[in-house]
Specification:
Keywords: Membrane, Transmembrane, Transmembrane helix. Its main location: membrane. It is a multi-pass membrane protein. By secondary structure, the protein is an all-alpha fold. It has 3 domains: about 300 residues, no CATH class; about 150 residues, no CATH class; about 210 residues, Methane Monooxygenase Hydroxylase, Chain G, domain 1 (Up-down Bundle). The protein is built from 28 helices and 4 strands. The radius of gyration is 29 Å and the shape is elongated.
Length: about 725
Amino acid sequence: MSWVPALKEAALSGLRIERKRLDPLVAVRGAAGLALVIAASLWLFGPAVAASSAFGAFQAAIATFQRSWRPRPELALVSGLSLAVSTFLGYLTVSRLPLFLALLVVWTFVAGLFWAAGPTAGLIASSNVAIMMVTVTLPTSVAQAAGHAGTMIVGGLVQAALVVLFPGRRWGAHRDALADALAAEADYARRLRQDPVALFDPLPLMEARDAAAVTPRQARRRPAQLHGARGFAERVRPVLASLADPAVGAPHEGRARERVRELLGAAADILDAGAHAIRHGTPLELPPHAVAALRTPDTEAILTGPVYRAAERLRTLLQDVLEQAGGTRQDEMAVGGGAPPPYRVRPGPLRMVPAILRTLRGELHPGSPIARHAARVSTVAAAGYVLGDLLPLGHGYWAPLTAVMVMRPDFSQTYSRAVGRFCGTLVGVVLATVVVRLGPAEPVHMGALAVLAAALMYLVRLTGQIATQACIAAYVVFLLGMAGEQVAQTVHERVLLTLVGGLLAMLAYAVYPAWETPRLPGRLADWLTAQGRYAAAVIRHYAEPVGKSAPDVREALLGSRTARAAWHTAVDRARGEPVRHRGLSRTAADKAEDALAETGRVAMLLEAHLPERGAASVPAAARFADALCSATEQGAKAVREGRPPSWDAVREVLRAWDAEKGAGGEDACDALVHRGAGLILRSLDDLTEALAPAVPPKAMGGNTRKSAPTVRPADADGPWNPGDSTAR
């Protein structure tokens, strides 16, 4: 994508308004906390302190709205405390420009690094820096600055208390995450009825796993419906796939295939019912036709071998989740006796500090996109503050404030937010000015208008940038008007400085970018390595049977999912960037993704049929697993260097396995894993062909598998060179 289409797409994204589900109760709760803080501060301390406290309460409420599995009161308290510290330190240095600029650079750089800890941490840290540039202008002495900081903490405490008293939909996000995982499994089962080799996106399962980590206090209050269903969702996915796949399941056509389709449809309906019960906290209502389909007594007469075992495993798993979703089976903790059930522990805020510091320290290297973002945003903040101070406009902090709020680690979000913020600020400032001109400019009236603007922002925060930024701009204007500024006389200043800040942010990314496109081969290589480890771990257990409980397989699977998610994130970002990666075309990337996804799917099928402890060993499986693990690591290195990977070592081991099989025969377990090994090698060959579509098979490391002639895609330019990134 060239610069003009990329900028156009980013601009349209920033101006887009989407229809989203609004949450009026949450908006009312946040606005009520803000109104309490403003009213109390006006009555006790005056307009200037009220403005500072309002900023603290406003930011604390926004923190509680972020996508986070951590308890909401913690987010409000952290937000209020960090803003108070920022404001106090900023006031101590604001009278000395060089010292304040040094603090601003350091504080903004650290805030930029906090994006490595997650979007919630990054947003809170960036907002604190932006708001600090406004709030440091309000106090007139050190004592007053300490008082303002104290009221910001109080604002965070008020919002935290309201979350405790009026939590809204308790455990709503956790319920949604688990229900989404079950609903995704239901959709997968329906797709398998039509496409027996359909792929599954594990993102809902990853979200559910993140949501399952709770603090000890949360674990004591977690609803019984949230216990155990995630483990079922993890176990049922490979069973569904193995039931449908013709390689290890039922044939393409015939009576067995019809029975498999019936079981998959019943599983989908029951999974949807379980998802609905968990999402809404209601009793489970079983679809009668689905229950009847599962209880059909002629399954054993129709299905045999691995497909019959998969069908029986599916029936057992569905019965478990139905009992848990319907509440007919309670764990020991739910009925008040015995030891608590196991759960993933989420550390508290203080215990998170060492982990966050390690994360930030790990990003301090030149190749890190997060470090480049931190360097960009800190430089732009300092330059914007100096430029705003030199321009004869007044309120110079609006330029760096805008830059800090719009800049993100990736290109698309930075440019779309810059456009959305400028247009939203223009609308918000103009509307706020008109309202001020028409009504009295008393502090009480201005405070009421600020609360109204904040309530609207809380309500429409998910609909798009332009609506959100218009409400924020109006809120800031009303608050500053409450503090005594002449709002109506500074409209053009705020608009121009907002434009300056947005342009600085966009220019900084163009001059010092962190493009994701050149990193695509590295992301693909990481996924290849992780996928190879997962497949090797599964196949190795056919040589060393330990039963269904295999922690190494689970760990490798999680690593594969993480690498896959990183690849998809990189691809999504790269598609909106105005650069191209020579040789790794979009077509090649899509084909490579399909090949690696097929590798993972075959490994998942083999995982569904892991032999029980004490079963007959398949020694050749261990040799194949070792060769696969080593070859994928070497292949990942080749991908990074721009060479097509070779699988000769894996092919030789498979040939030796073929010879052993022909000489001594094989049992059912040996046949299953041998067939899976062949499918994995085929998918790896597809990966090589995808990455080198113009290279004949003999030049691709000895690939002799017969395949149809390939045609070089029209969008593949020149040789595949990972180090070459060109802006068009």
